[in-house]
Amino acid sequence: MRGESSLSRFNDQELWDLVALTWGSQSTHQDLQEGKALYSTNCAACHGEAGAGDGVFADALEQPMIDGHADMQSGEMTTRPADFTDPLQMLSASPAHLQGKIVRGGMGTGMPYWGPIFTDEQTWAIVAYLYTFQFDLEDRP
């Protein structure tokens, strides 16, 4: 968002207010409930329950796969899961980018591709839920 000259006059809080307004106008409570359930079941083990990239498998994913992983091919590696609580990461990732990562996987990061498993509506529900880690919501799903 900082690359947009029309937004340069806004401070960080004002930009987040714009993001929150846009996000809130396109997210239903039902979408957030579904996104939370899918995230808790399928994503939290790596990304953490609170979205900080600190799930139970996060440390193992931070290492190159060839070291200590006999079933991996040379050149394969993984990276630490994304931290959805980091405002810089979330402001630099569009909803379409996040949805694409879910559908196609992390491509070299160790994140599986969920495209054949989740419906389009489910992937967008997860994306909507990911933004809840940025906002102080009183009624967080």
Keywords:
mainly alpha; 7 helices; 0% strand; 141 residues
Question: In words, what does this structure look like?
Answer:
Helix 2 (29-42) packs across helix 7 and helix 6 (95-104) crosses helix 7 (120-130). The protein has a single domain (29-133), classed as Cytochrome c-like domain (Cytochrome Bc1 Complex, Chain D, domain 2). The model has no long low-confidence stretch (mean pLDDT 84). 21% of the residues are buried. The chain starts with 11 loop residues before the first helix and ends in an 11-residue tail after the last helix. It has 141 residues and is mostly helical. The chain contains 7 helices and no strands. The longest helix is centred in the N-terminal third of the chain and has 15 residues, at 12-26.
